[in-house]
């Protein structure tokens, strides 16, 4: 459980930055080289590489070297784990709100 929580922590930390979410959105179209990933951003390459490092630590992307080019690819299973956690939280809160609604209706009916 602690390892799963730690993995989710690093995943959500990686997703907390808008630049990294934009990189994820780009990689949803398919694998891309680092220079392709960096193209839309007006930032220095070391900064882009730092973002990619955080995404890799968050298990959201993988990188591999093909000749002189580094290719980035999305790890969809990690996104699925985050989505599963969020879905579980949403189900829990919807259940609580349904119970609260039922309680409020029962109070109104008593009046």
TrEMBL record:
PANTHER family: SLL0088 PROTEIN, TRANSCRIPTIONAL REGULATORY PROTEIN. It comes from Glycocaulis abyssi. Signal peptide: none annotated. InterPro entries: ArsR-like_HTH, HTH_ArsR_DNA-bd_dom, WH-like_DNA-bd_sf, WH_DNA-bd_sf. This is ArsR/SmtB family transcription factor. Residues 1-94 form the HTH arsR-type domain. CDD domains: HTH_ARSR.
């Amino acid at each position: 459980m602690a390892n799963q929580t730690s993995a989710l922590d690093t995943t959500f930390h990686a997703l907390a930055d808008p630049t990294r979410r934009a990189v994820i959105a780009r990689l949803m179209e398919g694998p891309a080289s680092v220079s392709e990933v960096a193209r839309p951003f007006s930032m220095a390459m070391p900064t882009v590489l730092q973002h990619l490092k955080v995404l890799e630590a968050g298990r959201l992307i993988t990188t591999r070297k093909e000749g002189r080019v580094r290719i980035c690819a999305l790890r969809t299973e990690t996104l699925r784990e985050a989505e599963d956690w969020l879905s579980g939280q949403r189900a829990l809160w919807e259940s609580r709100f349904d119970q609260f609604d039922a309680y409020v209706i029962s109070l109104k009916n008593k009046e």
